[in-house]
Amino acid sequence: MSETEIRDDLDVRDFADMLTELPAHLPISDEFEAKDPQKRRRWWTSQREHLIFHFFDQLNPDPLGRPSRKKANFSAKTTYGKIKHAEGIVWLAEALNVLEPGQLKDLADAALKVERSERVAYVSASIPWSVIFKKAQAIQVGKRTYAEKATSTESLKEIASPSA
Q1: 140 Cβ neighbours under 8 A, 6+ residues apart
Q2: 3-state secondary structure of 34
Q3: For the residues of 87-147, what is the DSSP string, one character each?
Q4: Is the separation of the CB atoms in 161 and 34 below 8 Å?
Q5: pTM for the whole thing?
Q6: Which 3 state secondary structure label does DSSP give 43?
Q7: What is the pLDDT of residues 29-49, one digit of tens each?
Q8: Residue 25 region, left (φ>0) first, then alpha (ψ -120 to 50), else beta?
Q9: What's the rounded Cα separation, in Å, for the pair 164 and 155?
């Protein structure tokens, strides 16, 4: 991975954790999903929940041993590229406010006229990772990353009761 690629990516754990702080239901994305919801194997209560699981799931190799994922994926950028339903991208764009509400509504309405199998490509052409990354990175400023937490030499006891 080149230095440029590293600079425009986030750890998938930090990204999923950030998603927990965003509102679960928003008007444009809820309306978009309600007009043509996923018909089969729907288990989530919101696109936020769906994406949190999608991003955290990248940490696990495929339990069936399929070659698609033999080891953990720590790249939020790669994981964003694996989103298979436009509803998740529209929710993420609305939650991060990457487009003006009118623009996002127009995009969502236009996407409903596109075949479901082509919607992710259609929506992500207007909402590429680069704009998601900029907004997500701004939210992450000042927060300790999972990598920083993992390499910290502080124990929980030291954090809970710092010495005077």
Answers
A1: 10, 14, 18
A2: helix
A3: HHHHHHHHHHT-S-HHHHHHHHHHHTTS-HHHHHHHHHHHS-HHHHHHHHHHHHTTPPPHH
A4: no
A5: 0.82
A6: coil
A7: 999 999 998 888 778 889 999
A8: beta
A9: 16
